[in-house]
Write a structure and sequence with these properties.
CATH class: Alpha Beta
Shape: globular
Radius of gyration: 18 Å
Helix content: 10-25%
Strand content: 25-35%
CATH superfamily: Hotdog Thioesterase
Number of helices: 3
Length: 149
């Protein structure tokens, strides 16, 4: 707890309330740690990939594959016991691909109700057919989407 009275009355960080959608919540466990005692970056990346695929699945309506990690920023370490909230937003829909922004917020076990952005990433998924080749995203699904402002 801060001892400075101004810090004690500062507003708590909040979770997104705009067009981003909560797509995954997970708690990392001790088996997910690296030698420093923090959660492996690769574990976080795998969770981001899973969370990032949720919204594109609504448009693709079939198989898809991750084709690019356009950006991945680790802002803060993730710790055992953190409650991680993954928020996602579609940022672009192309002919066969969908780009998604994923933001990860940690609620530390020692400070419930306070949130800290720990990771943000941009990923691109492509719709694929049964042979694994790119296929067009259904036109009716694309027309239902509105680009973020």
């Amino acid at each position: 707890m801060p001892t400075d009275s101004s810090a004690a009355h500062a507003p708590l960080p909040s979770l997104p309330s705009d067009h981003r959608e909560l797509v995954l919540k997970v708690i990392p466990m001790p088996a997910d740690c690296n030698a420093n005692g923090d959660i492996f970056g690769g574990w976080v990346m795998a969770q981001v990939d899973l969370a990032g695929a949720v919204l594109p699945a609504r448009f693709v309506r079939g198989r898809m594959a991750t084709v690019a990690v356009n950006q991945f920023i680790f802002k803060q370490p993730v710790r055992v016991g953190d409650i991680l909230s993954f928020y996602s937003q579609v940022t672009r829909i192309g002919r066969t691909s969908i780009t998604v922004m994923v933001e990860v917020f940690a609620e530390r076990i020692s400070s419930q109700g306070q949130y800290l952005k720990v990771t943000e990433a941009s990923l691109t998924y492509v719709a694929i057919d049964l042979e694994g080749r790119p296929r067009p995203i259904p036109a009716d699904a694309k027309s239902a989407w509105t680009a973020p402002a």
